[in-house]
Design brief:
Oligomer: homodimer
InterPro entries (chains A, B): Ser/Thr_Dehydratase, Thr_synthase-like, TrpB-like_PALP, TrpB-like_PALP_sf
Strand order of the largest sheet of chain A: 4-5-13-10-11-12
Number of helices of chain A: 14
Number of strands of chain A: 14
Family (chains A, B): Belongs to the threonine synthase family.
CATH topology of the largest domain in chain A: Rossmann fold
Strand content of chain A: 15-25%
CATH class of the largest domain in chain A: Alpha Beta
Helix content of chain A: 25-40%
Largest interface: A-B, 79 and 79 residues
Pfam families (chains A, B): PALP
EC number (chains A, B): 4.2.3.1
Enzyme class (chains A, B): lyase
CATH architecture of the largest domain in chain A: 3-Layer(aba) Sandwich
Shape of chain A: globular
Order of helices and strands of chain A: EEEHEHEHEHEHEHEHHEHEHHEHHEEH
Number of domains of chain A: 3
Distance between the termini of chain A: 64 Å
Structural class of chain A: alpha/beta
Chain lengths: 427, 427
């Protein structure tokens, strides 16, 4: 697919498929595709502007359905070159959409309940989707080092993707991260640099490095490549609809960290409607947070348009962003679609992890406990309609947050004899 | 697909698709399908005998290719009812076959090197394949409890599958298993019983329970359901060939625990040849063990037909079976196909885990370190031909054996300043 020329904003050396330019979310100012993330006019966030005119609806649907069993089936709708599937990449996506009938019974959902289980990605979190996009942008811009600041999932996703694609990687983390998380990130063999400071210090240092000659040739997936990176979350929306038979769900429950994922899922659904791939009818998007880091939920309930930062204190560490950049957009979307934002306690998160595991055999990360717990709470409060088709996201694997369920253990201990077995009341 | 009637050995109440009877691997004695695993005549192991006459080759290929993206695409070749994909199951399989060009360069493989990455299964090991088969047999025989003896991966696979399918589960493990493994098995909410004793004691107890009225209605996936369970490994062979474009690989490197997986992969390849789905041409199967538990490798190198048991002492715990039941069959297959059996030290296992991670972004369990390490050793020794197409199995996820690479860590620690960054020599 050729890049369409967009007057005065095209960058003829960059082939990122249907991506035509970067456009400011606030003021609409357009700039050529490049490794920039903030508007030079108003400092608003830059987003990808597309030209989707290359295909008719049914041609596009046929192309997608004939594509590979990963996110590259949607290459015509992503900022990637048409031949992306032939390049070395860890090829995330096309994860299972599990019809969760047992969970539905427990929660009283009659309209069809589904879990979109992103623990099936290569490094077992949805981060593989966004990193895969950033990697293609890094390739297009001639970067040779892939980098990020991280406190966990992202570090592994960047390390794995860089290794496979032949990039150098250099990941920055707080120096006192838990040893398990360090191992998961270090095993891919890239540079893993501990910063003496907290996550904010790590981020500040990365911004400094981008502006310095030392950072030349470096693509920071969640900083200077952020507009491309963020688009990866759209694929969750595409997959859910295609897996439902090219149908919009009535309700989706999405976890909120920075809020980017939720806004991009909405963007993906809107694109499918505009492209005619799904019927245009209402859907509701619900945001889920942990009580210990619930700035968006608090703002939603208080009717505010702005989000007051919080100091996170929750076991759902992959969602623990106290000052979420996309918080105001999340509030807009929840209100516009008739959804809501809700939060649950850490105890409810653990209960929900166990509930999902014992009903559907899916072992979720704490973020999955947050979405399932919030779904339950929203049903109990009469906010989520149990007679409608509902999709709940699980964005990561329970093996990554074992500590959260560390209290789970043996139900009995017996001697190796039938007598002891009978005494334990297990028959 | 209807079960074909086989005189005097059919069980008309059991619909397990093309499975026609159980047949003794040693003496050929046939008995009706049922929850039995040893021949009543000679105590040899029972295997499934099939009737594959229902489909012509091209009809079969078309059915498979139109099937779901999991093992049930091969339902016409498995001991499961034709409508298996509609039943609640965790639907493993159709995992990635990764073209490993970076690893190939490091190892000097020029004929095409692939990693079959079974860490992508629902509970992140190949055990989901075998448990899914056992579950369908348990359903067919009217069992209500799914059980097993386990030291790790299998416990989680049984817990997850039972939860999803609405079975009670009761898993027996040594009482002093590491806490992490206990949590991974316990989270699915079934009974998890610690036995005061070692793994042998656990197994002896399970055999006792099967013969007792207390065990009525219990399906032990790796004991009384073993003939069905074991067939799940055939799907690895099917997927590899289909993913290669319906082509046999020249060489496959398979880990050896009990040896069952390797024998079933050979069985699967033979079936594809007989059914005309792949061209009939030679292939070589190589077995991989850890030096600390290498009874089959030792027997192979010494030219023996029998396997002398060992007391395991290796970090590759998922392969640590000192007295492998299928060892003699493995020796047969390695010799018949022109393959070999080799072993590597624990240090080589760790090196191989890191090698695979830094070249392909795949984080393997210790068993994957064993196969990659053995592949390297076989190439260095001139046993494995680097000019031929080679497939290496990774049967589990590195997150399950984090301890093996616990020494991996930060490459540098710096202050959050460019000066400190430059001093560390990271530019």
């Amino acid at each position: 697919m050729a890049v369409q020329t967009v007057a005065s904003t095209s960058n003829p050396t960059v082939d990122l498929g249907p991506a035509a330019a970067l456009s400011c979310r606030e003021c609409g100012h357009r700039v050529p595709l490049g490794p920039v993330f903030a508007c030079e006019e108003c400092f608003g966030p830059l987003e990808i502007a597309y030209d989707f005119s290359a295909y008719g609806t049914e041609e596009l649907r046929a192309r997608i359905e004939a594509g590979p069993a990963n996110i590259w089936r949607y290459a015509p709708l992503l900022p990637v070159p048409a031949d992306v599937a032939d390049k070395p990449n860890i090829n995330p996506g096309w994860t299972k959409l599990v019809k969760a009938d047992n969970l539905a019974r427990e929660l009283g959902v009659t309209g069809g309940l589904y879990v979109k289980d992103d623990s099936g990605n290569p490094t077992h979190s949805f981060k593989d989707r966004v990193v895969a996009q950033a990697l293609e942008a890094a390739r297009a811009f001639g970067f040779t080092t892939l980098s990020c600041s991280s406190t966990g999932n992202l570090a592994g996703a960047v390390g794995a993707a860089a290794a496979r694609a032949g990039f150098r990687s250099c990941v920055f983390i707080p120096h006192d991260l838990e040893q398990g998380k360090v191992v998961m990130a270090a095993v891919y063999g890239g540079e893993l640099v501990g910063i003496e400071g907290n996550y904010d210090d790590v981020n500040r240092f990365c911004s400094e490095l981008i502006g310095d000659p030392a950072g030349e040739g470096w693509g920071f997936v969640n900083v200077n490549l952020r507009p491309y990176y963020a688009e990866g979350s759209k694929t969750l929306a595409y997959e859910i609809c295609e897996q439902l038979g090219w149908r919009l769900p009535d309700q989706i429950v999405v976890p909120i960290a920075s809020g980017s994922q939720l806004t991009k899922i909405d963007k993906g659904l809107q694109e499918l409607i505009k492209l005619g791939l799904v019927e245009d009818r209402p859907y509701k998007i619900f945001g889920a947070q942990a009580e210990g880091c619930s700035p968006v939920s608090v703002a939603f309930k208080e009717g505010h348009d702005v989000v007051r930062p919080q100091k996170p204190n929750t076991i759902a560490k992959s969602l623990a962003i106290g000052n979420p950049a996309d918080g105001p957009y999340v509030l807009d979307i929840a209100r516009r679609t008739g959804g809501a934002v809700e939060d649950v306690t850490d105890e409810q998160v653990v209960d929900a992890i166990k509930l999902l595991a014992r009903t559907e055999g899916i072992f979720a990360e704490t973020a999955g406990g947050v979405t399932v717990g919030v779904t339950r709470k929203l049903i109990e409060n009469g906010v989520l309609d149990p007679t409608l088709t509902t999709v709940v996201l699980n964005t990561g694997d329970g093996l990554k947050t074992l500590d959260a369920v560390a209290g789970t253990g043996l139900t009995a201990t017996i001697r190796p004899s039938l007598e002891s077995f009978r005494e334990a009341g297990l028959v």
